[in-house]
Amino acid sequence: MWKETMELSLAHPAIKAFMCGSVSGTCSTLLFQPLDLIKTRLQTLQSSMQPGSGRVGMMTVLRSVVQTERLLGLWKGVSPSFARTIPGVGIYFSTYYSLKQHFFQDGSPGAMEAVLLGGGARTVAGVFMLPVTVIKTRFECGRYSYGSVTGALRSVCRTEGPAALFSGLMATLLRDVPFSGIYVMFYSQTKASLPKEISTSASAPLANFSCGVLSGIVASLITQPADVVKTHVQVNPQLRTAEAIRYIYMEHGLQGFFRAAVPRALRRTMIAAMAWTVYEQMMARFGLKS
After folding, report:
1. Mean pLDDT (the chain, rounded)
2. Is 104 exposed, middle or buried (0-12, 13-18, 19+ CB in 10 A)?
3. What pLDDT score does 170 carry?
4. Which residue of 128, 217, 239, 280 shows the fewest CB atoms closer than 10 Å?
């Protein structure tokens, strides 16, 4: 045990950042997976609904899933979610840490610099993890009967070709890069505005979490339309991004781009706030400035 602790303490800072990010991603994914499933089901319901039909809300979908798939059905897709977030959040935070240390070792980034840092880190993680993101979305929508993540990957490559694993790349980047950039900007600025007696007290993690919640709500609402488009493209791989935008607008109007905004805002906000809080606390224990 002591040897393992020593080896961990001697690890490269970027590897420590990767490990901290992976742990934070694991915790947040396990807790908030049901919200992601409800969000995906709400968005994909648009394809089978006629314009003007009755509105389907969060609670309707929640009851339907529990009745037909039992309580554990709310965690359907958690395996690909783990396969995506454990390495994905690790890659994100290690890239973020490396970029920040390289460009801003002697000071804190400003607002626009924070946008570039967050967006750059998310671009790297998003491209690397897109195939698993596609599989995760298909697991959650309920239209596909994959048995496992590896089985789903093989099935997609065999029936649709490897390119299908990168469907929705543009929509994914249009959603995730601005979200991360906006989130990091608001999070860093709100944290910097906290009184010193709060930021150095025992309640600092709670204060940071609150900053994360506020930042997540703003970033989620701004990037919601791109999330709806991304879901449609990944569930219907024959659709291109421009075609998905046209379809959503023609069938459901502007409100179609904000379908499932509440569960997504709740999930993204809580996941991001928890991930950053856990990451920063773990990095502090390693003696590193996050």
Report:
1. 83
2. middle
3. 84
4. 128
**Residue 180: which of 83, 254, 88, 77 has the closest Cα?**
88
Quick: pLDDT tens for 19-43.
Answer: 888 888 888 888 888 888 888 788 7
Tell me if 244 sits within 8 A of 233, measured CB to CB.
yes
Cα distance between residue 147 and residue 156, in whole Å: 13
pLDDT at 119: 95
Mean pLDDT of the region 84-108: 87
Least confident of 29-33, 122-126, 187-191: 29-33
| Beta-sheet strands, E only, within the chain | none
- Per the listing, tokens 């596609």 go with 134
pLDDT top residue among 203 and 57: 203
Half-sphere exposure of 174 (CA within 13 A, CB side): 16
Alpha-carbon distance of 132 to 72, in angstroms, equals 21
236 touches 47 (CB < 8 A): yes
Planar angle of CA 236, 233, 49, nearest 5 degrees: 60
Dihedral of the CA atoms 174, 119, 223, 26 (nearest 10)? 110
pLDDT digits (tens, 9 = 90+) for 211-232: 999 999 999 999 889 888 888 8
The one-letter amino acid at 18: F
Q: What is d(CA 5, CA 11) in angstroms, rounded to the nearest whole number?
A: 10
Among 90, 92, 80, 89, residue whose Cα is nearest residue 33 = 80
Q: CB count, 10 Å around CB of 273?
A: 23
Distances (CA, A) of 62 to 29, 113, 224, 256: 18, 40, 20, 20
How many residues can be counted in the chain?
290
Q: 51 versus 232: which is more confidently predicted?
A: 232
